[in-house]
TrEMBL record:
Annotated ranges, domain Fe/B12 periplasmic-binding: 57-315
Protein name: Iron ABC transporter substrate-binding protein
PANTHER family recorded: MOLYBDATE-BINDING PROTEIN MOLA (PTHR30535:SF34), VITAMIN B12-BINDING PROTEIN (PTHR30535)
Coiled-coil boundaries: none
Alphabetical list of InterPro entries matching this protein: ABC_Transporter_SBP, ABC_transptr_periplasmic_BD
Domain of life according to the entry: Bacteria
Amino acid sequence: MIQRYTGLGFRYAALWWGIALLMASCQQTTHSHKEGSAYIAEDSRGLTITLSQPAKRVVVLFEPMVDELYMLQAGASIVGIPEQVYQNESSYQFLSKLDKRIARKEIATPTYGGRANNVESIVGLRPDLAIVYEQDKETIVQLEELNIPVYAVSSKNKERIYKELRGVATLVDKEERAEELISYVDEELIKMERPVDSVRKKVYYAWSKGRILSTSGKGSLMDLSIEAAGATNACTLEMEAPNIGAESLYSWNPDIIVLWNSKLADVYTLKELAALPAVKNKEVYVLTPTFNFDPHTLKFMLFAKQLRHWCYPEESVELLETQIQEAMDKLYYSAKEEA
């Protein structure tokens, strides 16, 4: 819960402050709050970022956070984005409807060929906040040496996605919107829960660009979406991104195979998988458009919703499509007007 602290001038300030501290010690904290005139949030490194006023010029160097700033209705604050936003057709098509600057490709992309970040270009955008992937340590160090506040993110799991959304929301003064979004996603996840004793289908997730024998193990974001769908990850390895052999896939024997930014032919043309039951039964599916199902964002819930339908087709395709559209409207409503 985002906490707001203001100066207390009445007689029992010390008593109430002590009570507040006691209550806070009994609750899980997000380490994000507004304190007096300061906006304070803890990033994925455990470092505290403090701004004297809400960020108005934000450079976002992690593509999923561009998405989430629009969810927060803070798109107008964005002055720099990764070039991938323009290169990813699915993202560009959707976000260009929310922000005319993206449609016209007017928001700067301070990167070298869409990969390495151009610190000089970032500085030229005069940001009062930079949102950077936590593994991009060189960029973080360079920006902080130039006194540019950096909020590092990881989108590592559901808890991090929620915490980082709340943190960014605090720094752009959108705390209430963050709570509204998180409450909605939690409500939808509850709706998808299946009975504890129900039989769970096994799902194998294959990486993008035809990398069928590369997958995501236990504890990964894909595993999060699979579990939320009421299924189980066919990959038994506790690894983020293992490469496997066909024999492992046969031993796991998934009920369905899910592809991300790949084609059905990438599976059906692999001779070594021709005898796999999921392949023989045509239980191979493609998540499309990818923008709707990005598991690095709150849309891990939509990934789960689509996957649940493939695993347990209890409702019509038409109803599912309506539900997904309603969810997208909920996540992004009014974003166009705010951008």
